[in-house]
Amino acid sequence: MSYEREYAAFLEHQQKGRSGESLRRLQEGHGYLEQLFLQQVWWPAMGSFEHLFAEYEVSGLVQGFRFLDFAYLRPPYRLCFELDGFGSHAKDLNRWQFADQLQRQNHLILEDWKVFRFALDDVKERPQRCQQFIQQLLGKYYGSSVKSPHLSQKERQLAQFFVHQSQQVTPAAAAAFLQMSQVHTRRLLGSLQAKGIIAPAAGQTRIRSYILNPDSSRVRLD
To answer: Does the predicted model carry a pTM greater than 0.70?
Structure first.
């Protein structure tokens, strides 16, 4: 299941049934930061675009309607994800437009939307932190029913190895199990950590060992 193929299918599905301003916003407003968020944050964290809508139109707000960067519509909650480039919004707004943006967000919350914002620098430079937040957020609201993050074949093998271990696992031990170099193994370990499957056990700047994350018990590895 490749990201490129699923992303293309996601956009095609989003365009169906849209017209006018809604279609224009999807075609023109879905830009670099939005695509980066999907590729570096949402897809690695969730492995699926199910329930997610890009440039989602919300009507009935004060002074008309607005478009959300992303809406996650899964009963009983409505989640809004907004992306902000440093200075990109404020420099194009006057004081009244800026105040209007804040009021619109307030009205979203008043209408029972849960609003979360991500900065360009975090999405670009610290995507793992954003991935972990997404997983924790959906875990909080949807519990064990959250869809398990997508794991590659090697990631799944390594995760199963952790499940059967009763002690800390070093990168060397993981590399020996997979019969891969430590360089490639460390990349897999970093990916499993970002997806919440494992957690560091020793070391900070350079992690010397990992343990199975107790919160990952809800993830299906079969």
So the answer is: no
